[in-house]
Structures are given as C-alpha cells and as structure tokens.
Amino acid sequence: MVKLTQPDALNEKAEEERQESAVLTSFNELYIWSMLHHPCIHRLYGIGTIPGTSISFAAAEVINFDLMSYLEKHPDLTLVQKVRLMTDVARGMKLLHDKEFVHTNLKPKNILVSDNGNAMISDFSLARPFSEAADLSAEDGSRLLSLAYTSPERIEQWKSVKGLCSSSDMRSGIFPSDDVFSFGIVCAAVNLAAQAGPSSSRK
C-alpha cells in the first residue's frame, strides 16, 4: 500500500494553510508510526518523496480487511477466534501506550486484519504523545473525534464546544483511558456484529 499526499494549487493562500496543516499531520503520523514495531501494529515499510515534486508517500503492508469487513467475510469465527482478534488489538494498544502515545481514534475502520487473522492497529494521523494529548484544549480535543467510540469525558468536551452544556468542571485533554474506553466499545461492536450479523456493524 502506498499513501500519497499532493497539494492542490487552486487557492494559493488556502492551499498554503492546508499544506502546513497536512505537513504537520503527516510528519506527526509518520514519526509515531515509525516508532511502532510490533505484529499488532500495521507495518510501515518506508517513507519518501518523489524527486522534483511535492508528492510524499508512505509504503505499508497491504491488508485487505478492516475489522468489520473481516467479520463479515468470516461469519463462522468461533468465540476464541474473536477474542484472539481483540487480544491482538489490546497488545497493539499496550505497545502504543508503552511508547507514551495516545491513538485518540480507535475504531473498527482503524483496525486491520490480515488474511491469517492477525489484527493490527492502523491510522496514526490523530495520535499524540501523552504530554501533547494531555494539554489539548477542549476545542482541539473535540476535533479528534469519532463519537460512536468516544469516552464520556471527550463527549462532554464536544458538547461544551458546541454550546450544549456548561464547561465548568469539564476535563480537558485526551488520555490513555480514552483509548481504553474506545477499545471496550469496539469489543461490544464485535459482539453485537457476531450476534446480529453484518448489518449491525458500527464503522
């Protein structure tokens, strides 16, 4: 798999701002991704740029399934096999936290499964070091959000930013416990998908 980024020069000022944001996001993602070497982390082979262009790329292992599409493709998985998938995710998350990074966006779409049934965490574009994540303002924290898999504390941040509740006594920042909560919701989604079939998948 090759991930490409290429600027669009239609609006020079907007493009300049977008490029700055994209470069920071890409650098952040690639830096964190390059620090994570584990069977339960999507493997990054290398990064580079195409000479003479502004195109950058990251080459990674090709994986055909995300978590829910794998479950749909293999509807007869045993409970033991499903638990093994989620154990893989937990192992990947432990490595991420041991390296002092928070994923911030753990959900089935960001969990890939190989043909041999090995689950691995992917997409580190929103990941943050512990220190940076803890210092995020409520507004910044609420942007890094997939509501269906989000902890109650982060939902309160989002509601506060939207003016739906008071900001008093509201926790700011994002923490490893938020990843753990997301992991629990992913486990519940896997269980619901197993009980009700493919149409129940929460992506």
TrEMBL record:
Domain of life (superkingdom): Eukaryota
Family annotation (InterPro entries): Kinase-like_dom_sf, Prot_kinase_dom, Ser-Thr/Tyr_kinase_cat_dom, Ser_Thr_protein_kinase
GO process terms (BP): signal transduction
Keywords: Kinase, Transferase
Residue spans crossing the bilayer: none
Keyword Phosphoprotein: no
GO molecular function: ATP binding; protein kinase activity
Cited Gene3D superfamilies: Transferase(Phosphotransferase) domain 1
Matches recorded under Pfam families: PK_Tyr_Ser-Thr
GO CC aspect terms: cytoplasm
Stated name of the protein: Kinase-like protein
Taxon lineage: Eukaryota, Fungi, Fungi incertae sedis, Chytridiomycota, Chytridiomycota incertae sedis
